[in-house]
Amino acid sequence: MSRKKPTVLIDLSGTVHVDDAPIEGSVEAVQMLRDNGFTIRFLSNTTKHSSSTLIRSLRAMGLSIHLSELFTSLSAARDLVASWPGAKPMLFLEDDARAEFEAALGGSGTGAATEVAVGERKTDGSASAPAAQSDQPYSCVVVGLAPSMFEYENLTRAMNVLLAGGKLVAIHRGKYFARTTGLALGPGPFVSLLEPFASTPPTLVGKPNPAFFHLALASVPCAPEDAVMFGDDVRDDVQGAAAVGVRGFLVRTGKYRPGDEKEVGGVGRCWRDLKEGVEWLVREYGGN
Fold it and tell me: Of 43-52, 80-89, 90-99, 111-120, which gets the smallest average pLDDT?
Protein backbone atom coordinates (compact mmCIF):
# COMPACT_ATOMS: atom_id res chain seq x y z
CA MET A 1 0.00 0.00 0.00
CA SER A 2 1.36 3.41 -0.95
CA ARG A 3 1.97 5.98 1.77
CA LYS A 4 0.03 9.24 2.06
CA LYS A 5 1.36 11.62 -0.55
CA PRO A 6 2.87 14.84 0.79
CA THR A 7 1.86 18.23 -0.52
CA VAL A 8 4.74 19.49 -2.68
CA LEU A 9 5.85 23.10 -2.27
CA ILE A 10 8.08 24.30 -5.11
CA ASP A 11 10.17 27.44 -5.50
CA LEU A 12 10.14 28.88 -9.02
CA SER A 13 13.16 31.00 -10.00
CA GLY A 14 16.27 28.83 -9.94
CA THR A 15 14.29 25.64 -9.30
CA VAL A 16 11.83 25.52 -12.19
CA HIS A 17 13.24 28.21 -14.46
CA VAL A 18 16.02 30.78 -14.90
CA ASP A 19 14.84 33.99 -16.56
CA ASP A 20 12.49 32.87 -19.35
CA ALA A 21 13.97 29.40 -19.83
CA PRO A 22 12.79 26.28 -17.98
CA ILE A 23 15.47 24.27 -16.21
CA GLU A 24 15.99 20.93 -17.94
CA GLY A 25 13.48 18.37 -16.69
CA SER A 26 11.47 20.80 -14.56
CA VAL A 27 8.37 20.92 -16.78
CA GLU A 28 8.32 17.13 -16.90
CA ALA A 29 8.79 16.97 -13.13
CA VAL A 30 5.74 19.14 -12.45
CA GLN A 31 3.64 17.10 -14.86
CA MET A 32 4.88 13.91 -13.20
CA LEU A 33 3.60 15.19 -9.86
CA ARG A 34 0.20 15.96 -11.37
CA ASP A 35 -0.03 12.61 -13.14
CA ASN A 36 0.68 10.83 -9.85
CA GLY A 37 -1.84 12.70 -7.74
CA PHE A 38 0.37 15.06 -5.74
CA THR A 39 -1.01 18.43 -4.60
CA ILE A 40 1.30 21.29 -5.62
CA ARG A 41 1.82 24.83 -4.41
CA PHE A 42 4.37 27.21 -5.94
CA LEU A 43 6.06 29.60 -3.47
CA SER A 44 7.95 32.42 -5.12
CA ASN A 45 9.90 35.40 -3.83
CA THR A 46 9.77 36.88 -7.32
CA THR A 47 8.96 40.61 -7.09
CA LYS A 48 9.69 41.94 -10.58
CA HIS A 49 6.43 40.71 -12.10
CA SER A 50 2.76 40.63 -11.17
CA SER A 51 1.12 37.26 -10.56
CA SER A 52 -0.72 37.38 -13.89
CA THR A 53 2.46 38.17 -15.82
CA LEU A 54 4.32 35.41 -14.00
CA ILE A 55 1.59 32.89 -14.82
CA ARG A 56 1.69 33.84 -18.51
CA SER A 57 5.48 33.53 -18.56
CA LEU A 58 5.43 30.10 -16.91
CA ARG A 59 2.75 28.81 -19.25
CA ALA A 60 4.78 30.05 -22.22
CA MET A 61 7.60 27.80 -20.96
CA GLY A 62 5.20 24.85 -21.10
CA LEU A 63 4.51 24.70 -17.37
CA SER A 64 1.02 23.74 -16.24
CA ILE A 65 0.16 26.12 -13.39
CA HIS A 66 -3.02 27.63 -11.96
CA LEU A 67 -3.36 30.97 -10.20
CA SER A 68 -4.78 29.27 -7.09
CA GLU A 69 -1.53 27.30 -6.77
CA LEU A 70 0.73 30.36 -6.83
CA PHE A 71 1.83 32.21 -3.71
CA THR A 72 4.18 35.16 -4.19
CA SER A 73 5.86 37.42 -1.68
CA LEU A 74 4.68 40.37 -3.81
CA SER A 75 1.00 39.52 -3.31
CA ALA A 76 1.57 38.88 0.41
CA ALA A 77 3.26 42.27 0.81
CA ARG A 78 0.50 43.93 -1.19
CA ASP A 79 -2.18 42.49 1.10
CA LEU A 80 -0.21 43.41 4.21
CA VAL A 81 0.27 47.06 3.25
CA ALA A 82 -3.33 47.36 2.00
CA SER A 83 -4.49 46.29 5.48
CA TRP A 84 -2.81 49.32 7.09
CA PRO A 85 -5.31 52.22 7.27
CA GLY A 86 -4.06 55.28 5.43
CA ALA A 87 -0.93 53.56 4.18
CA LYS A 88 1.05 55.44 1.54
CA PRO A 89 3.94 53.22 0.49
CA MET A 90 7.07 54.33 -1.29
CA LEU A 91 7.65 51.41 -3.63
CA PHE A 92 10.90 50.06 -4.95
CA LEU A 93 9.20 47.94 -7.61
CA GLU A 94 9.28 47.69 -11.38
CA ASP A 95 6.26 48.87 -13.36
CA ASP A 96 4.46 45.52 -13.70
CA ALA A 97 4.75 44.66 -10.02
CA ARG A 98 3.90 48.20 -8.96
CA ALA A 99 0.68 48.11 -10.99
CA GLU A 100 -0.50 45.08 -9.00
CA PHE A 101 0.27 46.92 -5.77
CA GLU A 102 -1.52 50.09 -6.88
CA ALA A 103 -4.64 48.19 -7.94
CA ALA A 104 -4.95 46.58 -4.52
CA LEU A 105 -4.35 49.82 -2.63
CA GLY A 106 -6.81 51.79 -4.72
CA GLY A 107 -9.59 49.30 -4.11
CA SER A 108 -8.77 48.17 -0.60
CA GLY A 109 -11.21 50.44 1.19
CA THR A 110 -8.52 51.36 3.71
CA GLY A 111 -7.99 54.87 2.42
CA ALA A 112 -4.54 53.93 1.18
CA ALA A 113 -3.16 56.33 -1.36
CA THR A 114 -2.39 55.15 -4.87
CA GLU A 115 0.35 57.69 -5.63
CA VAL A 116 3.11 55.26 -4.87
CA ALA A 117 5.79 55.48 -7.57
CA VAL A 118 9.26 55.99 -6.14
CA GLY A 119 10.64 57.98 -9.03
CA GLU A 120 10.42 58.84 -12.65
CA ARG A 121 12.41 57.11 -15.33
CA LYS A 122 14.78 59.09 -17.47
CA THR A 123 14.71 58.79 -21.22
CA ASP A 124 17.44 56.15 -21.01
CA GLY A 125 15.19 53.98 -18.82
CA SER A 126 16.92 54.69 -15.51
CA ALA A 127 15.15 56.17 -12.51
CA SER A 128 15.32 59.64 -11.08
CA ALA A 129 13.81 61.20 -7.99
CA PRO A 130 10.32 62.68 -8.33
CA ALA A 131 10.34 66.31 -9.38
CA ALA A 132 8.19 67.45 -6.47
CA GLN A 133 7.72 66.28 -2.91
CA SER A 134 4.27 64.89 -2.12
CA ASP A 135 2.14 66.95 0.26
CA GLN A 136 1.33 63.73 2.13
CA PRO A 137 4.34 61.94 3.67
CA TYR A 138 5.01 58.35 2.79
CA SER A 139 4.19 56.01 5.67
CA CYS A 140 6.47 53.13 4.71
CA VAL A 141 9.13 51.97 2.27
CA VAL A 142 8.53 48.70 0.42
CA VAL A 143 11.61 47.08 -1.14
CA GLY A 144 11.40 44.46 -3.87
CA LEU A 145 13.65 43.73 -6.83
CA ALA A 146 13.75 47.00 -8.77
CA PRO A 147 17.04 47.41 -10.67
CA SER A 148 15.91 50.57 -12.44
CA MET A 149 14.81 52.20 -9.17
CA PHE A 150 17.88 51.66 -6.98
CA GLU A 151 19.28 55.12 -7.67
CA TYR A 152 20.99 57.53 -5.25
CA GLU A 153 18.23 60.15 -4.99
CA ASN A 154 15.52 57.51 -4.58
CA LEU A 155 17.49 55.76 -1.83
CA THR A 156 18.13 59.09 -0.12
CA ARG A 157 14.45 59.89 -0.17
CA ALA A 158 13.66 56.46 1.28
CA MET A 159 16.21 57.09 4.03
CA ASN A 160 14.37 60.25 5.01
CA VAL A 161 11.00 58.47 5.06
CA LEU A 162 12.47 55.96 7.52
CA LEU A 163 14.14 58.63 9.64
CA ALA A 164 10.72 60.27 9.94
CA GLY A 165 9.31 57.06 11.43
CA GLY A 166 8.19 55.17 8.34
CA LYS A 167 8.18 51.38 8.36
CA LEU A 168 10.58 49.34 6.23
CA VAL A 169 8.96 46.39 4.45
CA ALA A 170 11.25 43.81 2.84
CA ILE A 171 9.30 41.73 0.34
CA HIS A 172 12.22 39.37 0.78
CA ARG A 173 15.91 39.60 1.65
CA GLY A 174 17.49 37.41 -1.00
CA LYS A 175 21.14 38.36 -1.50
CA TYR A 176 21.26 37.24 -5.11
CA PHE A 177 19.39 35.23 -7.72
CA ALA A 178 20.28 33.29 -10.85
CA ARG A 179 20.10 34.69 -14.37
CA THR A 180 21.17 33.03 -17.59
CA THR A 181 24.28 35.25 -17.49
CA GLY A 182 25.14 34.33 -13.88
CA LEU A 183 24.23 35.61 -10.43
CA ALA A 184 22.71 39.06 -9.89
CA LEU A 185 22.05 41.22 -6.84
CA GLY A 186 18.74 40.63 -5.09
CA PRO A 187 16.84 43.14 -2.92
CA GLY A 188 18.50 41.97 0.30
CA PRO A 189 21.58 44.23 0.07
CA PHE A 190 19.33 47.26 -0.48
CA VAL A 191 17.19 46.33 2.53
CA SER A 192 20.41 46.14 4.56
CA LEU A 193 21.44 49.55 3.22
CA LEU A 194 18.22 51.17 4.45
CA GLU A 195 17.78 49.18 7.66
CA PRO A 196 19.98 51.40 9.91
CA PHE A 197 17.65 54.34 9.28
CA ALA A 198 14.46 52.55 10.42
CA SER A 199 13.31 52.80 14.03
CA THR A 200 12.09 49.18 14.02
CA PRO A 201 13.39 46.01 12.32
CA PRO A 202 12.19 45.44 8.75
CA THR A 203 8.97 43.54 8.24
CA LEU A 204 9.96 40.47 6.21
CA VAL A 205 7.11 39.14 4.08
CA GLY A 206 8.32 36.33 1.81
CA LYS A 207 10.42 33.24 2.42
CA PRO A 208 11.79 32.38 4.97
CA ASN A 209 8.99 34.08 6.96
CA PRO A 210 6.99 31.25 8.62
CA ALA A 211 3.70 33.04 7.89
CA PHE A 212 4.37 32.78 4.15
CA PHE A 213 4.75 28.99 4.34
CA HIS A 214 1.66 28.66 6.55
CA LEU A 215 -0.37 30.70 4.05
CA ALA A 216 0.36 28.18 1.30
CA LEU A 217 -0.22 25.17 3.58
CA ALA A 218 -3.56 26.55 4.76
CA SER A 219 -4.82 26.71 1.17
CA VAL A 220 -4.65 22.91 0.84
CA PRO A 221 -5.15 22.51 3.88
CA CYS A 222 -2.08 20.59 4.97
CA ALA A 223 -0.06 20.14 8.16
CA PRO A 224 3.64 21.07 7.86
CA GLU A 225 4.74 17.50 8.55
CA ASP A 226 2.69 16.37 5.54
CA ALA A 227 4.57 18.57 3.06
CA VAL A 228 7.96 18.83 1.37
CA MET A 229 9.68 21.87 -0.15
CA PHE A 230 11.96 21.98 -3.21
CA GLY A 231 14.20 25.01 -3.71
CA ASP A 232 17.62 26.26 -4.78
CA ASP A 233 18.09 28.61 -1.79
CA VAL A 234 19.32 26.70 1.24
CA ARG A 235 18.36 29.52 3.61
CA ASP A 236 15.06 30.85 2.31
CA ASP A 237 13.65 27.62 0.84
CA VAL A 238 15.13 24.71 2.76
CA GLN A 239 15.89 26.14 6.19
CA GLY A 240 12.79 28.34 6.03
CA ALA A 241 10.63 25.29 5.38
CA ALA A 242 12.33 23.25 8.09
CA ALA A 243 11.66 26.02 10.62
CA VAL A 244 7.91 25.41 10.28
CA GLY A 245 8.18 21.61 10.17
CA VAL A 246 8.26 21.07 6.39
CA ARG A 247 10.92 18.72 5.03
CA GLY A 248 13.26 20.74 2.82
CA PHE A 249 14.88 19.46 -0.38
CA LEU A 250 17.73 21.46 -1.93
CA VAL A 251 18.30 21.31 -5.70
CA ARG A 252 21.69 21.96 -7.26
CA THR A 253 20.38 24.43 -9.84
CA GLY A 254 19.83 28.19 -9.90
CA LYS A 255 21.65 30.02 -7.10
CA TYR A 256 22.95 26.80 -5.51
CA ARG A 257 26.64 27.05 -4.60
CA PRO A 258 28.91 24.07 -3.81
CA GLY A 259 28.80 23.48 -0.07
CA ASP A 260 25.20 24.63 0.39
CA GLU A 261 24.16 21.02 0.97
CA LYS A 262 26.13 21.04 4.24
CA GLU A 263 23.53 23.47 5.61
CA VAL A 264 20.46 21.38 4.74
CA GLY A 265 20.46 19.53 8.07
CA GLY A 266 17.78 17.40 9.69
CA VAL A 267 15.80 15.12 7.41
CA GLY A 268 16.38 17.29 4.35
CA ARG A 269 18.06 16.02 1.20
CA CYS A 270 19.91 17.41 -1.79
CA TRP A 271 19.09 16.53 -5.39
CA ARG A 272 20.74 17.21 -8.74
CA ASP A 273 17.59 19.00 -9.90
CA LEU A 274 13.83 19.06 -9.42
CA LYS A 275 13.25 16.11 -11.71
CA GLU A 276 15.57 13.83 -9.74
CA GLY A 277 13.82 14.76 -6.49
CA VAL A 278 10.35 14.25 -7.96
CA GLU A 279 11.31 10.85 -9.37
CA TRP A 280 12.34 9.84 -5.84
CA LEU A 281 9.03 11.12 -4.42
CA VAL A 282 7.01 9.09 -6.90
CA ARG A 283 9.00 5.94 -6.10
CA GLU A 284 8.76 6.57 -2.36
CA TYR A 285 5.05 7.38 -2.17
CA GLY A 286 3.69 5.58 -5.21
CA GLY A 287 1.70 6.77 -8.17
CA ASN A 288 -2.02 6.78 -8.82
Answer: 111-120
Pairing verdict, β 120-121 and 167-170: unpaired
Instruction: Provide the 10 A C-beta neighbour count for residue 279.
Output: 15
Distance CA 76, CA 123 (A): 32
Residue 47: predicted pLDDT:
86
From residue 151, give the alpha-carbon distance in Å to each of 38, 99, 147, 155, 180: 44, 20, 9, 6, 24
- Average of pLDDT values for 208-225? 93
63: closest CA among 99, 95, 15?
A: 15
Domains of the chain in sequence order: 7-45+207-285 (3.40.50.1000), 76-204 (3.40.50.1000)
- How far, in Å, CA of 271 to CA of 273, rounded? 5
Say how far apart CA 18 and CA 8 lie, in whole Å.
20
Using the 8-state DSSP alphabet, how is residue 236 labeled?
I
Look at the pTM and tell me if it is higher than 0.85: no
Instruction: Find the angle CA(150)-CA(154)-CA(155) to the nearest 5 degrees.
Output: 70
**Closest-CA residue to 284 (of 2, 1, 38):** 2
CA distance 155 to 153: 5
Q: Which residues pair with 170 in a beta bridge?
A: 143, 204
Q: Are 86 and 110 in contact (CB under 8 A)?
A: yes
